[in-house]
User: Fold Cadherin-13 from Pipistrellus nathusii.
Amino acid sequence: MKPKTPLILCILLSQVLLLTSADDLDCTPGFQQKVFHINQPVEFIEDQAILNLNFSDCKGNYKLHYEVSSPYFKVNDEGGLVALRNVTAVGKTLFVHARTPHAEDMAELVIVGGKDIQGSMQDIFKFARTSPVPRQKRSIVVSPILIPENQRQPFPRDVGKVVDSDRPEGSKFRLTGKGVDQEPKGIFRINENTGSVSVTRTLDREAIATYQLFVETTDVNGRTLEGPVPLEVIVIDQNDNRPSFREGPYVGHVMEGSPTGTTVMRMTAFDADDPATDNALLRYNIRQQTPDKPSPNMFYIDPEKGDIVTVVSPALLDRETMENPKYELIIEAQDMVGQLYGLLGTATATILIDDKNDHSPEFTKKEFQATVEEGAVGVIVNLTVEDKDDPTTGAWRAAYTIINGNPGQSFEIHTNPQNNEGMLSVVKPLDYEISAFHTLLIKVENEDPLVPDVSYGPSSTATVHITVLDVNEGPVFYPDPMMVTRQENISVGSVLLTVNATDPDSLQHQTIRYSVYKDPAGWLDINPINGTVDTTAVLDRESPFVHNSVYTALFLAIDSGDPPATGTGTLLITLEDVNDNAPFIYPTAAEVCDDAKNLSVVILGASDKDLHPNTDPFKFEIYKQAVPDKVWKVSKINNTHALVSLLQNLNKANYQLPIMVTDSGKPPMTNITDLRIQVCSCKNSKVDCNAAGALHFSLTSVLLISLFSLACL
Assistant:
């Protein structure tokens, strides 16, 4: 594609201007002559030219302004210094300050034969930097030195001169400060004889903008004669830095339908050049907009502030009609107040058109159909809607409500977060025999409210027709669970109850048969026709199949459908306790020393599987103890424990002591248990029970043997 001629001309013009700017680097801004000497006249005549000054900022002297240290003089447009009235005495020195947006400098007029006058030069000059105007009594005269940055070879080059009108013969100038004898060293130097100041290398204003130097005069031995006097070196800015955008990425948001002139965002660029010059004075522009629909100029940027605003009507700022609700703008920042020769910096601004809820959701059809089997639960139909708003916002997300036809709260509807559909569910099983059809009225709204000029219409409601399908339901036991209470150990064949199950399918007239489903202990039977439950074994409360005195069994009720349906019922039998378990003692063995001083042998405890009152208090006693054997004693401790002790020490041997324990039931139950007692030898802290003797008879057996022996005599 052939480029347009104006663009080629602009490029050529920019190159010419850049080349011109590069050539200007050899131009030294400031006064071409900085020091003048004139003889004191009898009188300075009004409007009579005293001398001509030649000042250049190397850029055309735009907005050149002069200031003179005496209020009686001025510099005219041709650069001539003239008196404003007839003046006789103005002092020994006049200073002229010249300034443009790009440069400034000071010229000195030495009046030979002039007389001192009172007054401060600093009160006359209004510029911001510290005035280098010397005090009247000093003979060293210095003025600020202005040096452009980025100067080319050759170096060193003279940039200013220090004058000392009263300098003794043989004295020398000395220059010190940062840039001379302090880092960065060696940038400036002074001719010790003439006072000429030179620079030795290229300067960079963005690195160091000013240098504070000091000038003094010394004798041949290096001793200071006068000074030091401050000398300021000012680096003049050149346009050598492009504007840059540092704060990206730049993303702005604007609501669709916003009024023309709505501020979207602000773009701010930075320029490292001198902010007091046009080198850093930026102007902003939109170079390109993508996409360029519905208008190639959707936005405008304030050239000075960088504010991006909308410039199209609210109707064009419609997110739903745009090809893409995201715009990318290439933003230019150009220094030199946006002139063609200014340097450019660019950045991309992304603007997102945010959605507002200006479209209501609408059902894709007015009526939906669904079928569900009775007794079933879960999702039965998905309701579909359309919404033109942004799918990532609450202006698109749907919220469904059942507004009619759900008095029993059998239905619920929830939003599918993936596709925005309404999932209609059955949460309480439906009964065909009660109602075979249901009709629901559903409405849909957005999570976010609609904008004021949009409302929900007829398409935001829909009707759902639900058909309930009949299925063969299993019989239902009533009540469930069934509960009875009986004593344990009732006779086999005892009737416990007659179960009752009904068929929900009342229109089918089916018969019901019963059977045992789960009977863990095998104690029960059921009549298959009438449902009578009786016992086939003794009910035992202490059985491991009984938990907390309750025995659980399950029964089935089976209808005559095809295929048959089954219902399950639970029977809970609470068993009342009877005293059918004798108590038992623990422990059943003990040891005691043959020479023990404490004749206590063991503490016995008793336990019973039955429940109170068929348990404690227990009665402990020695069973059939003969008079000669009364060496043992049982003493009650509490309702469940007793102490066995000796009445005298026994020889080392094993003994069997019959203990009888009786519970408190009516009638009571008794248990006799042999308590094995070892009488051991205990000497020198050693217990020996191994040789307790060969006798292992109970005391009753010893008594019987003795009686038999007496009978044989």
Q: What stands out?
A: The CA atoms of residues 113 and 154 lie 40 Å apart. The chain is about 5% helix and 40% strand. The longest strand covers residues 670-683. Confidence is low (pLDDT under 50) at residues 1-25, 118-137, 692-713.
